[in-house]
Design goal:
Blueprint lengths: L1 E4 L9 E2 L5 E2 L2 H17 L10 E10 L6 H9 L9 H11 L11 E11 L3 E8 L3 H6 L3 H8 L1
Parallel strand pairs: 4-5
Antiparallel strand pairs: 1-6, 2-3, 4-6
Helix pairs in contact: 1-3
Length: 151
């Protein structure tokens, strides 16, 4: 598991110029590079897996300072959830960024989960499991999660 510090970011659409040339927005490229850097810093010896894998992403957003104390408590308890960014675009930017770094291609991902929540420290937490890590996943006490993946 590794963390990407800072505010979660969502993948932006490719832009097309009048000439017909398409490009990826600068902010998206910068964030993808941040994700890659965080992964490589945590796992410097990692080789991209060719095995099927699953990815769990938790996007933690800061609780707005302007909110009432009551709403801050609800947000901290998980009753209120962030509305910012579509969950799939948060997952997409992380998965695309890890192509050639954590896995050969993100088409190897057979299961993906993206959670959005409020917290004290904004970040994106990423947990990756190779399909070969079935026993490790069970040993970590994630029996229910493993059953949901394989049911």
């Amino acid at each position: 598991m590794f963390d990407v510090p800072g505010m979660p970011f969502a993948k932006q659409r490719a832009r097309t110029l009048r000439t017909g040339r398409s490009y990826t927005p600068k902010e998206t490229v910068i964030y993808e590079n941040l994700v890659k850097t965080c992964f490589v810093d945590k796992y410097p010896e990692a080789v991209p897996t060719e095995a099927p894998c699953s990815v769990f992403i938790c996007a933690v957003y800061p609780i707005p300072k302007s909110w009432s104390k009551k709403d801050k408590i609800k947000a901290d308890a998980g009753i209120l959830t962030p509305r910012r960014h579509d969950w799939d675009n948060v997952g997409k930017i992380v998965c695309d960024a890890l192509n050639g770094v954590a896995w050969t291609d993100d088409n190897q991902i057979f299961a993906g989960f993206v959670f959005k929540k409020y917290g004290d420290r904004p970040c994106v937490r990423v947990l990756i499991y190779d399909y070969d890590d079935e026993e490790e996943l069970k040993e970590r006490g994630n029996e229910d999660l493993w059953q949901a993946l394989t049911a």
